[in-house]
Design a protein that fits this description.
2 copies of one chain form a homodimer.
Chain A (H helix, E strand, L loop, with lengths): L1 E5 L10 H9 L2 E5 L9 H8 L4 E3 L1 H6 L1 H5 L7 E5 L7 H12 L6 E4 L4 H4 L14 E3 L10 H11 L4 E5 L1 E2 L5 H5 L9 E2 L2 H15 L9 E6 L7 E6 H4 L9 E5 L6 H7 L6 H11 L5
Chain lengths: ~290, ~290
């Protein structure tokens, strides 16, 4: 059996009791480490689980899945995913490969907390979110803005948008690659400030009033940990805010943000008077 | 400290290791039992946690929250919520009361798996869901159809819609109430079949092509448990399908359901040939 086990968001103790039992008895334990990261080191997981953990990077999952699935038809293999397994496409990939394996490998998935729901900590109702978008690091020559169309669609319906921020782990250095060497860059994690700046930058080109300076948004960092940080304000304010260590995410507030959502979200405001003023003027309207 | 702790979806072992540690040492342990239910009895929780658990029904949470919060400024109180705490407004209510308490009561929330993400088990991408809607039990004289407008909005954007199904626990019997007696009805949980029928019924009146007989949908039951059941088909097929014990939910597929989603979802099809035919004809189109 291949067990795909969600680890939750913060540390080694966010795994479920059921998941921990499986990890402790499994033949091998893998950790998916390229779509998200925990806030603790692998060694801390290993020491708490009492098991050695094999880090599965993108290359291993995509090209060497036979190694991961070896003997999984007769033995238990645990594949750990930060957050919730279903929130990454890795899950669907692996599960499909198990179905197509000869003989088929049974799979079982253990769900856990995901950023998609933990973002409810902002006070915004999860029922009022539209589709989720991703924001990638802009470069001088590559500023993909397809997120803007999705945000605009949500915005038309007055819905909030969760923006998931790019992480780059184990990216090869392109200059070294051109010389035939593989050297990995240091990991990079997009900050709330970078995301807010990129949104404002795209708004300046697209000009549909979707994510300009005065749009209300809420930045979050390290959700689910002791050290979580939530700040609400305009995109301009958030583009200057320091949220500290990764992981960060951002929610752009939809215009229907109702009174109860506002009452809770304003407790996180960088400048409460400003936040209240903009909310009263532009938000809380019924669709 | 008031700890609001998500229990996950299925049984007593879906709590996180961190959550279990808090439950075992807390002064009092409450269980929110009116927006969702676990698939096991309270006694099974109590026996595994080694603690007695006080069931908090809607009345207690809404009218007697002072009892729940008593001494929480100096002692640890655990408030357990089925699924993820942020997926119900109970969380926001309680947390706001804690902030407004004199002296303020510190709170900490432990996220867990939610139906909002566990529904990824269908193979549909969580990034392609629009707003979530609720379906209540229709009566002869009351058939609220505001869900239809939300589904239509999602549908315009080609997005999937998660439909959460009504549960009635501890509802007073109205005839007895009229005679001055409080007698509670037996708990009722909406089935996928009932939901699909009600959607088709509303489509017959509203006629915008949002949720008619031939729309593809996926029903799920007891997600996250050993016993989970997933079936895909037309709403008409699902209106005849038997999913067994609660809890059930339904996803109406959006027209952008792409090839990889279809490839996975079709493995759950009641009638695969029919499912494939409708998908090829009406779905998978780019926005």
């Amino acid at each position: 059996m291949l067990y795909i086990i969600g680890l939750g968001l913060a540390d080694e103790k966010d795994i479920s009791v059921k998941g921990l039992e499986i990890v402790r008895r499994a033949e091998r334990v893998y950790l998916e480490a390229y779509t998200a990261v925990l806030l603790v080191e692998k060694s801390q997981l290993e020491s708490y689980y009492g098991r050695s953990v094999i880090v599965a990077d993108r290359e291993m999952v995509e090209s060497q899945s036979d190694d991961i699935l070896a003997e999984a038809d007769t033995k238990d293999v645990a594949f750990l995913v930060v957050g919730d397994p279903f929130s990454a496409t890795t899950h669907t990939d692996l599960a499909l490969r198990c179905q197509q394996h000869n003989p088929p490998i049974p799979t079982r998935t253990l769900p856990n907390a995901s950023i998609l729901t933990a973002v409810g900590a902002t006070g915004l109702s999860l029922y009022n979110f539209g589709q989720t978008v991703s924001m990638v690091f802009f470069t001088d020559s590559w500023k993909p803005d397809s997120f803007y169309d999705r945000v605009a669609e949500n915005s038309t319906l007055g819905l909030h948008t969760l923006v998931l921020l790019d992480i780059k782990v184990k990216e090869p250095n392109l200059e070294a690659l051109a010389r035939g060497k593989i050297v990995y860059e240091a990991p990079r994690f997009m900050t709330v400030a970078q995301c807010a700046s990129q949104m404002i930058e795209v708004e300046e080109t697209r000009k549909q009033g979707v994510c300009g300076n005065d749009q209300l948004a809420i930045g979050v960092a390290r959700l689910g940990s002791d050290d979580e940080k939530i700040l609400a304000g305009t995109l301009e304010e958030l583009s200057q805010a320091d949220f500290g260590r990764p992981l960060h995410s951002l929610v752009l507030c939809g215009s229907t943000m109702h009174e109860m959502e506002w009452e809770y979200a304003r407790t996180f405001a960088i400048d409460q008077e400003k936040f209240d003023g903009i909310w009263k003027k532009n938000y809380g309207t019924k669709k």
